[in-house]
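ok so for the tutorial part 2 we go from a plain amino acid sequence to predicted structure tokens. step 1 is just haveing the sequence, like this:
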Amino acid sequence: MDSINQPEFYRQKSSLFFTAIFSLLCFGAFAQQKIVAPRQYTAFRTSEAMNIDGKADEEAWEKAVWSADFIDIEGVRTPTYKTNVKMLWDEEYLYFYAEMEEPHVWGNLKQRDTVIFYNNDFEIFIDPDGDTHNYMEFEINALNTIWDLYLVKPYRESAPVIDSWDIQGIKTAVHINGTLNNPEDTDKGWSVEIAMPWKVLSEANTLATKEVPENEFWRINFSRVNWDFDLENNRYARKKDKDGKYLPEYNWVWSPQWVINMHEPEWWGYVYFSAATPGSKDEFRIPEDEKIKWELYALYRKQKKHFQESGDWITSVKQLVEHPVIIGGKSVKIALEVHSEGWNLIAVSPFAGKQLVLREDGKFSARKENTGK
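step 2 — the prediction. this is what the tokens look like for a chain of 373 residues:
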């Protein structure tokens, strides 16, 4: 869901700058927040011609594995209705198929790029290079109306949202297992099938050496928004409370966000694009450097929380990083660098020989370690 009403904290951009530069290396990690690994999925390569009709009756779809069941966005409650997805890819497209249990399939939004999550919808979030900036959001309702947009930064950092951006050449279809907008019966659910062209998706991949990320992984998550409803003149509408305000929506996701906010891309799942065919086995392991990133983002959130409460950044690495970081049995060096325009967190990877850098605006990057030689 596009978080229009995010708390002001997520929209703040600090105007506080430091003139001193402070950098100190230490062995450390942030242990105050338990970090749970995001979910992962292996998408296999298909050579079969895919007919985008919302039914997924091709052999490749039959062999593709289902995702884990969706869970409530905060990672605790089991949703009322089941949701699962599958993924495939070929040289031209990245394919998605989702099935959603739903006893009342309805929708009334028919104009592209309207706020689709005001209907029950299915959503896809894609961050190809995993830097949490320059990512894509896609939403679709049961009428096959879509909303696609490009975000320069998450809402927690001030940045424009490019609503006019479109996924050119996208193919979408919806299949209703029941009857649409008919309150007189009970439906089984609805499914969506989507083909997104690589040539458009690669626009957000600053690390790409090729359009198709074969044997690579992207950060992706899925969301399903569901509303309680009332009938107004025998038509479905979002339910309101006694004061005339809409009741809050339900947010069900593939990989938990732990907060009611899809726009924390560091929590999104890992999708690995295997060159093997559907039905094969191809094991993917999340790289150790990704686990270091999780620790850096925990520190980033700690910094943001401290600034929200005090109006100042933490400038001491000893105050920010309180406990030793051990990743894969190895200690990780972390530095806090405060400069005139903000701060950086820098972790030295003992695995890839790189410096992993996280800026104060949440943007992540990796660079070769400067050995001084």
